[in-house]
Description:
5 strands, elongated, 3-stranded mixed β-sheet
Amino acid sequence: MDQGACPTKRAEPDAESFQYASSEEKDFEVEMKGRSALSSAIEVRREMREDAEETEDARGPDDLQPIISFLTDLIEIFSKGRSLTIPQRRAPVSTTVIERWAEMMQDKSEHGLVSIKASDGNCTAHSYMLVLASPVVKALLRSSMVEDSTKSISVTDCPIAAVNLFIELVYTGGTSKNATAKTAGQALQLAHRWQVDDVVRMLENLLAELLGEDSFEDMAATAQLLSLPQLKQACVAFAQASSVVQKKVKSKSLP
């Protein structure tokens, strides 16, 4: 993976199946086509664990134990190594962001700044940029509401770090800072509230990369609450790969 291999890249449709025969004359076969290395390892381990549960000895066939342990370690490596596959020098830019740049370039009138009041500080952004990005902000600034007369918007439930991350993504489609999972989650909720769909997708993908045992519960709750399919999928894969999450599932200690 240090050389750029991606454990989440799906195999080609003509990929061969994984086959293994244990000393107990138990054959395992898992289709590889359309699966990633991560999902394949999870599926093979699941098959072997199910076989172990069907035997009288809960440990299963002795020759499978080293393989199950190896697969668990491999899944942990794959899960933690996903961020290594993100390009550091080049990244795709959302077409919506490009369209906003073009609109701003074509605009000849003067558009002032709008002040955004966060829970722990203030920042500013071009009102026209926010109007182009968000139908919610457009309604706020172009109506008779107080935000239009004062040219300010209050988001007192959102910290300034999350607001700044949101604004940077609106303007550039990327960020020069290392955002934490908590900040990215707060920025995502703001983007979702203001209906900036392309920024929602950017932050959804970022959160999928920032998934960890400490942030899993909050991210899973956010994915469910906001109906975010990519983040939901990432949470499921992480839960299957994490021994810590699996223990919480079995003990029913997850909220």
